[in-house]
Amino acid sequence: MEPFLRKRLTFLSFFWDKIWPAAETEDSIPELPGPDTEPELPAAAETRNVPAPRAQLFRALYDFTARCAEELSVSRGDRLYALKEEGDYIFARRLSGPPSTGLVPINYVAKANPETHSDQPWYFSGISRIQAQQLLLSPANAPGAFLIRPSESSLGGYSLSVRTQAKVCHYRICTAPSGSLYLQEGRLFPNLEALLTYYKANWKLIQTPLLQPCASQLPAQDEWERPRSEFALRRKLGEGYFGEVWEGLWLGSIPVAVKVIKSADMKLADLAKEIEALKSLRHERLIRLHAVCSSGEPVYIVTELMGKGNLQAYLGSPEGQALSPPLLLGFACQVAEGMSYLEERRVVHRDLAARNVLVGDDLTCKVADFGLARLLKDDVYSPSSGSKIPVKWTAPEAANYRIFSQKSDVWSFGILLYEVFAYGQCPYEGMSNHETLQQISRGYRLPRPAACPAEVYMLMLDCWKGSPEERPTFATLREKLGVIHRRLHLGLT
To answer: Which positions fall inside the SH2 domain (predicted)?
Structure first.
């Protein structure tokens, strides 16, 4: 109907434009001039629908649930525009999902590159106009399927391709002098997400509904799996049983810790199963997994970066040596919380020690490397391999017979308590591994460190009971340490 009326009654073109406003298609728009000669939009166009084009783009690193009306709930991966920074919060507009604004803690987000769209299901990089048509017209896609791709005719620009019933329409996304994006003059948007959100709701302006992102017909990729090229290793932090640990940057801006797994020592066939378990473990006292690179070698396990490093090294530093017993007890309580969560989930750590607890700049403690010990090859993690097994942290039944359980983790926690109150001193100092096992079998137990309260030492001795069944649970340890901690604080006040 529209083409017929426009052709027969051309003198009413102004009226037809009001009824059927049309976006400029990629076919109909002439090549844009270069950036130096690009004509300015009319002044009115710059004053309508102009979100702040200079706002900073962020990406949510973790889930956050709003606790009051002023806060904004976000999910990991959500993209946000920070309209204002307010102390430890940003006041942001969410671009993913239903648009909304509110406060989000700044430590839950990281700055993102505004040109990075690879995580969006509708963005297809490296495909041509012809390939976009073939993909959208394939049986996997229905009318209303759409995608955005780099423009072939405008360097640095984008094109929107949308499937109608039997064909594909292409629209060029233009860039205004201010940096905003638009399909139609006068309707400016700060980014592609905002543009799509608007035209999904107002699709009649382009006469083509935007119903669902184009199906790629590729196998669905694990959201945790990232290409190794996204991570730059900057500084080696240490080396342990499982490989090297590096400080790195993710996508050039997000600080992370990267564990580079030694393939020669690791049961790589079991790694995928273990990584699946790591993804399901989420607790504020466990180090948070960000991503993995398990395709090819070396394997990367990428986690949050903790500013003060591992607890053993921190306690031995001048800053750590000056800590008071209540602060040391606070470390113990935090580790007990994390281990209690693992206990509830029936996860055995197998290598609990101060070196595998990480400390943040705010003195928060998080347990790391949980579950990885089971992936080590038998000839590495066994008594016959000498110093490879951490005998001085390992329960006798685990060191002698490889019987690991939550109660063997409790023994290790007792050793960790000793490390904490001895300010990082190595347990059984001066003894060899063989001598240590001999002395333990004869009933010897580590003495009470000078800074350790007597009540805490009694808990240590409970952790070192010869019979695993007689050792307390982590839930009990968490509760008892919490009571001692509160009493110690009350005594100081």
So the answer is: 122-214
Cα atoms found within 13 Å of the Cα of residue 260, Cβ hemisphere only: 17
Where exactly are the structural domains of the chain? 56-111, 121-220, 228-304, 311-492
- Architecture field, domain 311-492: Orthogonal Bundle (1.10)
| HEC secondary structure over 235-299 | EEEEEECCEEEEEEEECCCEEEEEEEECCCCECHHHHHHHHHHHHHCCCCCECCEEEEECCCCCE
Q: Is the pLDDT of residue 63 over 80?
A: yes
Least confident of 29-43, 221-235, 283-297, 420-434: 29-43
Looking at residue 101, what is its pLDDT?
86
Helix, strand, coil: what percent of the chain each, to 5?
A: 35, 20, 45
- The question of whether 351 is a catalytic residue gets the answer yes
Q: Please give the helix or strand (H or E) that residue 161 lies within, else none.
A: strand 158-163
Q: Which pairs from 110-113 meet CB under 8 Å and 24+ separation?
A: 110/58, 110/59, 110/61, 110/253, 110/254, 111/56, 111/57, 111/58, 111/59, 111/253, 111/254, 112/57, 112/58, 112/59, 112/79, 112/251, 112/253, 113/57, 113/251, 113/252, 113/253
CA pair distance 242, 380, nearest whole angstrom = 10
Stated as kind and residue range, the H or E segment containing 54 is none
Is residue 31 within 8 Å of 81, Cβ to Cβ? no
Q: Is 259 annotated as contributing to ligand binding?
A: yes
Helix (H) or strand (E) holding 446: none
- What one-character DSSP code corresponds to residue 445? -
Q: Which residue has the tokens 């083509």?
A: 208
Tokens at 50, concatenated: 């102009």
As a whole number, the mean pLDDT across the chain is: 80
Helices (H), 171-242: 192-201
Percent of the chain exceeding pLDDT 90 equals 39
CATH architecture of 228-304: 2-Layer Sandwich (3.30)
10 Å Cβ neighbour count for 28? 10
Which contacts qualify for 40-45: CB closer than 8 Å, 24 or more apart?
A: 40/177, 41/176, 41/177, 41/185, 41/186, 42/185, 42/186, 44/186, 45/176, 45/185, 45/186, 45/188
Can you give the pTM of this predicted structure? 0.55
* Most distant pair of Cα atoms in the chain: their distance: 106
Catalytic residue (one of 351, 369, 379, 462): 351
Which of 168-172, 261-265, 315-319, 370-374 has maximum average pLDDT? 315-319
Options 3.30.420.240, 3.40.50.300, 3.30.505.10, 3.20.20.140; CATH of 121-220: 3.30.505.10
Handedness of CA 23, 28, 34, 38 (dihedral sign): negative
Question: Could you count the other beta carbons within 10 Å of the beta carbon of residue 73?
Answer: 16
The SS3 of residue 181 is strand
